[in-house]
Amino acid sequence: MTAYFDPERYPTLSDEGAEMLRYLTEHPNAPIYRDESGNRLTTADLDELKALERKLTTENIDWAVSQHPSWLEQFLEYVYREVPYYRAQGTAPAFRHIQPISRAHLSADIAAFVPDDIPIERMINFRTTGTSGNPLLLASHPRVAATYLLFHQRALRRFGVELEVGANHVGVVLVGHQTRCFTYVSVTPMLGDSGLAKINLHPNDWRHPDDRTIYLDALNPEVYTGDPLTFNELKKLPLTSRPKALISVGMMMSAGMRADLEAHFNAPVLDIYSLNEAGPIAVFDNELDGHLLLQTHMYVEILDSQGNTVEPGIRGEITLSGGFNFCLPLVRYRTGDYAALVDSPEGPVLKELSGRAPVRYQLENGEWINNIDVTHALRPIPLAQFGLHQNKDKSLVLYLAPSSMTHHQRCLEALKHVFGNLIINVKQIEKEDKILQYTNDLIEGVMQ
What are the pLDDT tens digits along the chain (448 aa)? Predict the structure, then answer.
């Protein structure tokens, strides 16, 4: 057991937590864990996280679509004083005059966006690629990584789900399905050292394919987190255990896919809009018909291509200021994702959320339709992943994940109502990662 006591990775590990690590690692049906991790949370970190958790139980978003948050002015003063990129520009101008930044800015020089008053001794970093072509090295901290859980809990409570505290059970299993995947075991001290595992469902990571079902049933996690592609693989396993909820991040999820998963697992499926640069931003709420914002200190604007704020309810680029990552405070950060923003009795809501720039498609008669029309047409179909491309001759290619190919005829029928007699070919997605969902070879089809 002493092998599991690592004061650098697990500064506050209890005896029960060490036993959980041993159980997760040495279970006879455990996968081949290829990596190591740890929460690196100190007692002081845990005290701060508990204080934040208490605050989040009563704190609500204090701004509406047409007004700035009360904390914004003080936040900007701090950023223009401590962050090299902004300090070089002098005094903070009026918020609307601050030039937005993008992923390319962070990719070019991430250090320029890290505040000088953040001690570097405990900073961590991780890399992300995404679909934009700008790889990122992101600055973070163990406490920042742990804060994800607090906003996931905030979202779970909307669906009546509370996570248990204690080292006698597994709280969260993060699942992926890739040829090569970062995998590890850990514990969550904020939940009393409950077990946590990052698992690859791909058979390459298991001694026998049947071990996946045996192991996951033995763990019986309260929550699975993953993406629609992985959940579709998880659904194929003959599991007898059932989680309290599934949390989907990283890819857009169709309403049909969400309903299919909820029926199979008899549990709510939370579709969370989340970015590596900003953490969990919003969770889809069926009654609000949109993604309700989660972070109380994240201000969201919707900008047009010239950087101007659009009217409430008009789609544009989601732009972020603030956030809980104190190693990377964002100021008017253009995400590359698009939605409209409206007020609701429960707070601001992102409507018609879609990843990357809006794309339109040309019909036979020369008229143009928005990619949102495609989203609506395919919404009832349980697709793990799809993409649509238009060629220069106006013909279309619908890309479907291998597990969704059985629905290709339904997709063609649904798209026929949108595109009429245009030729639509169906191809299988070969990659195991995110793709650009909507693309067009027609220059007029890509809206900048």
Answer: 667 889 999 999 999 999 999 999 999 999 999 999 999 999 999 999 999 999 998 899 999 998 999 999 999 999 999 999 999 999 999 999 999 999 889 988 999 999 999 998 998 887 775 544 446 789 999 999 999 999 999 999 999 999 999 999 999 999 988 767 889 999 999 999 999 999 999 898 999 999 999 999 999 999 999 988 789 889 999 999 999 999 998 777 888 889 999 999 999 999 999 999 999 999 999 999 999 999 999 999 999 988 999 999 999 999 999 999 999 999 999 998 989 999 999 999 999 887 666 678 999 999 888 777 888 799 889 887 889 999 999 999 999 988 889 999 999 999 999 999 999 999 998 865 567 788 999 988 775 5
In angstroms, the CA 79 to CA 82 distance is: 5
Q: Decide: 50 and 198 in contact? Cβ < 8 Å.
A: no
- Spatial CA neighbour of 230 closest among 389, 385, 26, 393: 385
- CA-CA distance, 251 to 127, in Å (whole number)? 18
Residues in contact with 309: Cβ distance below 8 Å, sequence separation at least 6, in sequence order: 96, 301, 302, 303
DSSP strands (E only) in 201-329: 223-226, 245-248, 269-275, 279-285, 290-293, 298-303, 316-322
Strands annotated E in 356-414: 360-362, 368-370, 386-390, 396-400
Domains, in order of start, for the chain: 2-64+125-294 (3.40.50), 360-445 (3.30.300.30)
The dihedral of CA 150, 324, 226, 253: what is its sign? positive
Strand order in the sheet with 396-400: 424-428, 396-400, 386-390, 438-440
Q: What's the token pair of residue 47?
A: 């005290």
pTM above 0.90, yes or no: no
Residue with tokens 């990052």: 198
Nearest to 326 by CA among 71, 142, 61: 142
245-248 and 269-275 as β-strands: parallel, antiparallel, unpaired?
parallel
